[in-house]
């Protein structure tokens, strides 16, 4: 098993930490220790330590869910002393493997909430970061406010010293730190959200206001919430892929991570309690990340989800196979060149067409073996983030809606779980109820437009867009995806 005992005798070609993980003091707590976090934020912090920064920037991971799977994950992290391997692959199949050592502890919140609070209240903790998914911030899309009516939020407000949500943990810790004179920490979102720092501020201050308005004012005045743009394709690792990764690395790692060789992190330099020298690891610090967010979310993420829906309908299961289809590749390029790029304000130093070419190249990386189902998972939340600005701008400007409507129609058809070859799959929509998913099967093809995926532009939705989506769904069913693709 991969653990600290074998760090001095790693297999040939596997790079280990340039420091002794046992001596690394924690300075960051992270909620949501998934593959993306381990291949992105943790990897960047690891690179800081490689560059000679002594820390203390070790990371304590926190899991918020209970159950056998969560408990097994926690047990494995502990058994491996927080160590795991990251394999980076390029489009030509070249790969490099390193062992990441920055994860210094892993806490399962349902097992011991007070241990999580104690760690958050440690004066050494300077940053609390999170990857809790696009839909995890509990924001009402219509009002833009934090939803205090959520049952779990209500439970935390009723018993705030024994929280279960990330909002309850962070706000209770900040209350205790204020009382102890410890001071605040930075709250840093690493999720694919427009203005993710502002969304996080709305969520945590909204929860605090419902609990104690004075505490909310203190948080607003003292806690910083930097916006960031994060990017790295990090596929799921199933048992088969785990076996392959271990065979190629020579490790016995129960928690390996696979990622493309590309990574990007653009971040506002707004840290109230200090930060690692992330610029040494390749993080780009800017005054405003909005332009970078727009390019990434509207070009990469939106085309990714669209490709996923179309590919699943055609019977593909992997991203690289879908983008290799000439018809799908042509459609994605047309969407980017005709619909997104003319209606986007890119940063001065970013060339949108070069970015488009890079997106297509990244999707073509066979070694990543990313699945279309993973890309489409939680599409109801992703659509609001990835599609909204392009849809709203197109409606406002009178822009051609044909490709946009077709992409939205493909998403709704994908929810039915059947491809054109008669194969079946199970869409992953954790935020939708059974009744909402059933709308995709409703004989009234406009009924599914009531899904929250369309909330981001519901106030400007036109009959023309509704009709175009319905017509595209009818065309997909009667003639198939390929014959129905708009130019």
TrEMBL record:
Residues 288-476 form the Mannitol dehydrogenase C-terminal domain. Keywords: NAD, Oxidoreductase. The keyword Signal does not apply. SUPFAM superfamilies: 6-phosphogluconate dehydrogenase C-terminal domain-like, NAD(P)-binding Rossmann-fold domains. Residues 27-280 form the Mannitol dehydrogenase N-terminal domain. Coiled coil: none annotated. This is Polyol:NADP oxidoreductase. It comes from Novacetimonas pomaceti. The lineage of its organism: Bacteria, Pseudomonadati, Pseudomonadota, Alphaproteobacteria, Acetobacterales.
